[in-house]
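Students often ask why we bother encoding 3D structure as a string. The short answer is that it lets us treat folding as translation between two languages. Here is a chain of 465 residues written in the first language.
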Amino acid sequence: MRISAVVLAAGLGTRMKSNIPKVLHKILGKPMIQYIIDTIKSIKPEKLIVVAGKNIKELKEAVSWQNDIIIFVKQTVPKGTGDAALKALPQLKGFTGTVLIVNGDTPLITKSTILNFLALHKKRKNQVSVLSFESKEPSSYGRILRDEKGRVISIVEQRDASEEQKKIKEVNSGIYAIENNALNLLKKIPLNTSKGEYYLTDIIGIAKSKGFKTDAICIGLEEELTGVNTREELNLAANTMRYRIIKKFLESGVTFIDFGSTFISPSAQIGHGTTIYPNVIIEGFTTIGEGCTIYPNVRIVDSEIKDKAIIKDSTLIESSIIKSNAIIGPFAHIRPGSVICENAKIGNFVEVKKSIIGQGTKASHLSYLGDAKIGNDVNIGAGTITCNYDGKNKYITTIEDNVFIGSDTQLVAPVKIGKGAFVGAGSTITVNVPPDSLALSRVEQKNIEGWALKRRLKEKRNSKK
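And here it is in the second language, the structure alphabet:
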């Protein structure tokens, strides 16, 4: 089956009460239109055309990474869905096959529903088909009108429907299949004078009247085909999508302690045997391996968590790699560009930025490690800081294998601590430390005996005056 697709994305979305184009509002971190594009791409259309309005620039930027396969056309003046579909017609010149038309505000549509719809369209040898569904509360939808034999006649919009027609439960999804030899019917759609728009819904009645084989294929689910026009509907769509994602991972062997409080990006991957605790947020293109444990209140963004890693409570990981058997947190912040190697430990209130932390290395508490290259089996004492910024430039701190860094140490970059060296607690290191050396930079301690007693006696005398 030869397929081309048209996505209608020119709507202003005024009911969203936002300056953001409706189709760019995000569901679990992903623009609404991206879900539709991804679903359509999965059926491998020959052409994928997006009809945009005045916000065409923003739409192009939102899907810029795949502009090579999307053809954008502009509807300069918003004249309705019929006019928007007509704008795609020049791009379909010479195409022989079925054109799928989808509204840009139906992010929950699935590949299986589209394929079933197209298969029935072909099986029934239709020239124009609309996907319909039964709605419990159809008040905002166009109704599917049928004759006494059940054959489709037309679609009537809610605002134009009679009281009797408003009782009809079968409604329009806004998804159409049109054979190339029926595309010129788009030019026959009349102007609705009360709205000043051309309704794509009118193509059903026009096709029927012109003798084209026309049908409404009622196979859709309301949950899947509901359009998103308001903030409330956006939230409902997000909840549906969130459950779909979690259900997929449940079926693949991931454990959720409370999936009702868990948010996972549709682009994320999670291996079997991993356990996710409540209030976890996994964003972007994050990959979590097998047998991991992600404790409560963790947020992971665009990162890779390898097998059997443990991420403890209230930890933030951004654009970094956590390798196998590493332990991160609680209350740790792994900033972009960091690599935490196998069996390493980053403990509570430790911040790592753009650094490599070697195998078996431990920074258990209260440290900042920025722009650092730290080797294997290094001990980072509490309160250690890499001083990597002089107000203008960033510099690298290098710590080789088997180094011991005592507590409350400042490493002023650029500086290198050689293999096997010790740095005494409370030191400020400004020059390189040779391998197997001890580095100390403390001020010599002085004990003034009796000083405290003299102070107390003086305070006592002053209090009696």
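Translate back mentally: The mean pLDDT is 93. Keep this in mind for the problem set.
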